[in-house]
Specification:
This protein has one helix at about 30-40; strands at about 1-5, 10-15, 15-20, 25, 40-45. The protein is α+β, with helices and mostly antiparallel strands. The chain has one domain (about 1-69). The strands form 2 sheets. Strands 4-1-5 form a 3-stranded antiparallel β-sheet, covered by helices on one side. A two-stranded antiparallel ribbon has the order 2-3. A hairpin with a 3-residue loop joins strand 2 (about 10-15) and strand 3 (about 15-20). About 5% of the residues are buried.
Length: about 70
């Protein structure tokens, strides 16, 4: 589980260590992750699904009855 430090200043948290703004911590143990989240200094980083954009092409309709000038 990835956790992100959510403060704007550098801070040493007792029992966890020194963290800078935007620092990300990877924790494998659920109880350890709960300790980090309960301290309110960290937020869970959720995985985003990658969005694939598909270009849609417009087809031009040809009017066969139109006359050319």
């Amino acid at each position: 589980m990835k956790l992100k430090y959510n403060r704007n200043s550098e801070l040493e948290i007792a029992g966890f260590g020194l963290f800078k703004p935007g620092a990300i911590v990877e924790v494998d143990d659920e109880t350890e992750a709960k300790r980090y989240l309960d301290s309110s200094y960290f937020d869970e980083v959720k995985k985003r699904k990658k969005i694939v954009k598909v270009k849609k092409y417009k087809t031009k309709e040809v009017n066969k009855n139109a006359t050319r000038k």
